Amino acid sequence: MTSDHSLHAENVTLGYGDRTVIRDLDVSLTPGAITAIVGANACGKSTLLRSLARLLAPSQGRVVLDGADLHRLPTKEVARTLGLLPQSPLAPEGIVVGDLVARGRSPHQRLLSRWSAADDEAVAEALDLTGTADLAERAVDELSGGQRQRVWIAMALAQRTDILLLDEPTTFLDIAHQVEVLDLLTALNRARGTTIAMVLHDLNLAARYADRLIAMCRGEILAAGAPQEVLTPALVETVFGMRSQVVPDPVSGTPIVLPIGRHHTRETTPTGEASHLATQR
Fold first, then answer.
1. 20: left (phi over 0), alpha (psi -120 to 50) or beta
2. Which residue ranges does the record assign to the ABC transporter domain (predicted)?
3. Alpha carbon 3 to chain centroid, angstroms
C-alpha cells in the first residue's frame, strides 16, 4: 500500500519579511517514500518544510497538494491528509500527555460528532508505538526534552495522515531513541505507505533511513535522489565545507560519511617525515 497523495512546490520563493531564503525552487515528494532534507544550518531546510506544511506562504509560486493550491484548501481537509511535527512545538500550559496526543484526532472530528472508538484506538496505538503510554497522565511540561519529543511524535502519529512532515524529529533524543524513532517511522512507511519528509542533521542516519535525499545549500537544491547518488565527498564539501570520505555502511550498505578533520590529515614535516597533526595539539 502506497499513499496516492502528491505534494510539490512549483517555482516557490520563500522568506521572512524582506529577507529571501529560497528563490524559484521546485521540489516534489515521492509518494510512499521517506525523504530526508539535509544541509548546513540556515540553508533553508526548515523554511522549505514550513512551506510544504502550509505554515509559510510563498511570495511567488505555489505549493500543490493533489493538484490543488495548498493555501486554497480548507484547513481540516489539509489536516486529514498532511501531518506536521514542527521544530519547536509548544504545548498548552498544564496539559497532560494523553490529552495532547488526543489533539492529533481533531482534524477527524466533525461538527456535532462524538469521540469514537477509532479515536481511542489511534491515540492508544500512537502512545504505544512511541513508548509514552506510561506518561499519559503526566503533565507535558514536567517531562524531559527527549520524552516531550516522543510525545509530539505520538500526536503526529495519532493524526493518521498519509503525508507526514517532521522538522528534526530526533532533536533532544539520545542515539538509542533516535534509532527507535527512525525505525518507527520506517515501519509506518512500510506498513501504511505513508509519505514521510523530514529534516535531519545526521547525514549517516539520513542515508540509512531515507529512500531519497534532498541536499540544500543557501536556499537551493544541489542534489536530489537516492543516498548513494547524492552523498559524495564533493557534495559534502560544497554543502558543509568539510572534507570527507564516503564509504559503505558495514551494517546497512548505505553511504556513511567519515569527516576528515584538520587534526587527522597526514602532512610531511620539513625533514620529509610524515607526521599526524593530531599529535601536535
1. beta
2. 7-243
3. 18
281 SS3 class? coil
The C-alpha atoms of residue 196 and residue 67 are separated, in whole angstroms, by 19
Locate the domains of the chain by residue range: 7-231
> Among positive and negative, which fits the CA dihedral 70, 74, 76, 81?
negative
Which of 83, 99, 96, 97 lies closest to 151, judged by CA?
Answer: 97
Residue 147: CB atoms within 10 A of its CB come to 20
Between CA 138 and CA 132 the distance in angstroms is 10
Q: CA-CA distance, 194 to 234, in Å (whole number)?
A: 32
Question: Full-prediction pTM beyond 0.70?
Answer: yes
pLDDT tier at 262, thresholds 50, 70, 90: low
Largest CA distance in the chain: 85
Instruction: Kindly report, residue by residue over 153-207, the tens digit of the pLDDT.
Output: 999 999 999 999 999 999 888 999 899 889 999 999 999 899 999 999 999 999 9
Q: Domain spanning 7-231: which CATH class is it, in words?
A: alpha beta
